[in-house]
Amino acid sequence: MQGFKQSILVSIWFVFLTFPLMAVRVNTADRIVEWRWMNMLWVAVASFVLSYAWRYMLARKQARNKSEESGQQQGRVQVLLEDMGFRYRAMGVLLVLALIFPLVFDTYQNTIMISALIYVVLGLGLNISVGLAGLLDLGYVAFFGVGAYSYALLNHHFDLGFWAILPVGGILSCLFGVVLGFPILRLRGDYLAIVTLGFGMIFKVVLENWSDFTFGPSGIANIDKPGLFGIDMNIDGSTLYIYYIMIALVVFTILITNRLRNSRIGRAWIALREDEIACVAMGIDMARTKLSAYALGAFWAGMVGVLFAAKTTFINPASFTFMESAIILSIVVLGGMGSILGVILGAFILILLPEYMRAFSEYRMLAFGAAMVLMMIFRPQGIISNIRTKYEYKGLREETDNG
Amino acid sequence: MDYFLELFLGGLTRGSIYALIALGYTMVYGIIQLINFAHGEIYMIGAFVALIVAGICTIYGFAGISVLVLAAIAAIIYASAYGYTLEKIAYRPLRGAPRLSQLISAIGMSIFLQNYVLLAQTPDFLPFPSLIPEFAFMEPVAHIVGSSELVILMTTVITMILLTLLIKKTKIGKAMRATQQDMSMARLVGINVDRIISLTFVIGSALAAIGGVLVASYIGQVNFYIGFLAGVKAFTAAVLGGIGSVPGAVLGGLVLGWTESFAAGYVSSDYEDVFAFGLLVLILILRPAGLLGKARKQKV
Q1: Which has fewest Cβ within 10 Å: A8, A19, A333, A336?
Q2: Is the pTM here over 0.90, yes or no?
């Protein structure tokens, strides 16, 4: 009964709150006020139901916190994922599926899949700085833009090919990351967020206004597609080709980021995320470690930016807005910060779901925003939480066995 | 000289608006060390509510100053209500969670509110009626400073004075200062910390709404996206002045306003935003605590 009363109050409050924006629409030019009472009914019913769900979830979270204090419990998925044999088999199956995918489906599906894969790489790149090192980067799309523009411009002026620029784009945006990161990485986390956000915006302003160099808002068209020993390909063929390049890039990214995470520097990143002061006291060079995370994250964005320019053959500043950064960030957050599998899953869900549910696509960003808040409150570790590799010292046991 | 004066006053107007919004950031940050990314959205919602109320009022035949007053009151009430709800939903359950989680939740809320207004109202720019009347006595200097600029400056000054009195002289203000200094100690001496935090959000949101109404009627149009840039700029102002400090926010707002105004006037208006952020980066590198902020020693 208590809950019922509370939900009624919540419902009334939200009706009050949303009334002017949801129920009224004023057209000052024609002097008409449009009243939309049906919306109010929806808000009332929805907030009533959701307040029950909210309370239930909060109670469950508290119960879980208590049970976690008494002892660590692992979910069934978690146990399965830690089994290395299962992991290798699953990866093999997925790779085969990915390789035969374009042979089964048509070019349209391939194109969608390519953009999902682009976001997978972007997510994995941002995962290095946000997920592993805990540096919230809100201007990540600028690095993506550096890659895309370096290919577009070098191709336009010097006629350089895709394969030559692919590493160059990565390295250029890596350098860009170092130059930007150097002065700002000493800042505390929340300042870093706002400064990177500012850089992302400056990047777009410069792209739009420096017309002599970047061709301004009209963008650059007729960028070459990736070449394959000079063979001419039709649209289907080149889409297929880009798809396989993308698969290779994703596999490469997964391998490298996985190795990085378990390396000395990867562990330094995680330590830095957990506790900066303790980390510095242990003798880790904070500035250099942070800078390497920032620059390596930028590297992947640059590479995939080159591929993006080659895929669309046309780029303009509108592709590099804050919204893109926000989408990439929500991929990392929803998938699970630090978890490679989680980020991949997050990219597929966030990019493919709106693609196949066109009717709801205008609600996409609304849902992303809400999901980010709800995830942080109820499941901060993401869909698939990061598995920390544990190292055991086996030497001692053998010694005691012998002695 | 006239041009210089025009830019100076333009910067002052702009800066005082930034200061109004920056106060919300700085007060919230002072208490819970969180960048309230959704603060710019609260400002935008304030402007939208004012637009809707003003629209209804003019269509039903109200006139003159009563429209402005009604619209401003509605904007303040709704912005405060949104600020209160925002804190309750997105920040309170995360109290004590890692900083990164709180920041991400704030960004999520900002994206959510933007798209909520986009879907509930319209993605286009809406014309905002100029609610501030033209005063006859301003006629001789109208080419340098207009009536709306005068109203903006006056409103800002009065609001600042009221806010300072609230913080320095009242019991609530004392409780707010105590919470800012040491939250657990404040709790021990019987201050309801949760209520103080809610109150801070409400006051900050109300100030943002005042800024929203003034700007919207000054510029003459609103859309769902205005809050984002204004929010980032205002945060820049807050950092510039020293985050957590109320006079710092005002000073930071003015410095930012002048920088933008002079840079746009003498250098290039295309790169206005670049100058603002350049200034932010410079300040953060040279003087991370801001112009008036105290450097807080980090204790282990």
Answers
A1: A8
A2: no
In degrees, rounded to 5, the angle at the alpha carbon of residue A45 between the alpha carbons of residues A44 and A49 is: 120
Is the minimum CB–CB distance between A90 and chain B shorter than 8 Å?
A: no
CA angle in degrees (0–180, nearest 5) for A354-A104-A314: 55
Q: Between the CA of residue B268 and those of A80, A257, B1, B174, what are the distances in Å? A: 60, 43, 19, 45
- Which residues are within 8 A (CB) of B93 and not within 5 positions of it... i.e. 6 or more apart? A58, A377
Taking an 8 Å cut-off on Cβ atoms, the answer to whether A371 and B273 are in contact is no
* Residue labelled with tokens 């109203």: B151
Residues 6+ positions from A386 with CB-CB distance below 8 Å = A131, A336, A337, A338, A339, A342
Q: Give the DSSP H or E segment for B284.
A: helix B272-286
Q: Which two tokens stand for residue A94?
A: 């997925």
Q: What ipTM does this complex have?
A: 0.86
Q: Taking Cα atoms as reference points, which of B223, B170, B227, B216 lies closest to residue B38?
A: B227
Q: Which of residues 196-215 of A touch B (CB under 8 A)?
A: 197-199, 201-202, 205-206, 209
Task: Count the alpha carbons within 13 Å of A179 in the hemisphere toward its beta carbon.
Answer: 8
8 Å CB contact between A128 and A270 = no
Check the CA dihedral A143-A148-A149-A154 and report its sign.
positive
CB contact under 8 A, A20 and B285: no
Nearest CA in chain B to A364: B115
- Closest Cβ opposite residue B104 in set A197, A362, A372: A372
Residue of B nearest to A373 (CA): B105
- Return the closest-CA partner of residue B178 out of B242, B243, B187: B187
pLDDT tens digits, one per residue of A295-353: 999 999 999 999 999 888 888 888 888 888 888 998 998 888 888 888 998 898 888 88
